[in-house]
């Protein structure tokens, strides 16, 4: 969330300085990368949980 707050602050400074555009782009890129990583971890956890549930259900039916 800190990255999102920083990104929000930089958005307001976007047109006040020349450097602020590159800083905003860098912050946006960091947020996107962190979100991709978090999504990947979430998908991995969901897959593991689904596999566990599947094996438990399969063993009950046997």
Fill in the keyword field for this structure.
2 helices, 62 residues, rod-shaped, mainly alpha
How is the topology of this model organized?
Blueprint: H1 2-12, H2 18-61
The percentage helix is over 70%
Radius of gyration: 20 Å
Ends distance = 46 Å
Structural class: mainly alpha
Number of strands: 0
Oligomer: single chain
Shape: rod-shaped
Main sheet summary: none
Low-pLDDT runs: none
Domains, number = 1
User: Number of helical runs?
Assistant: 2
What order do the helices and strands follow? Answer: HH
Q: Which band does the percent of strand residues land in? A: under 5%
Q: What's the average pLDDT?
A: 83
Task: Describe the protein's architecture and organization.
With 62 residues, the protein is an all-alpha fold. The chain has one domain (2-61). The protein is built from two helices and no strands. Helix 1 (2-12) packs antiparallel against helix 2. The chain is rod-shaped, with a radius of gyration of 20 Å.
Write a brief structural summary.
This protein is mainly alpha-helical and 62 residues long.
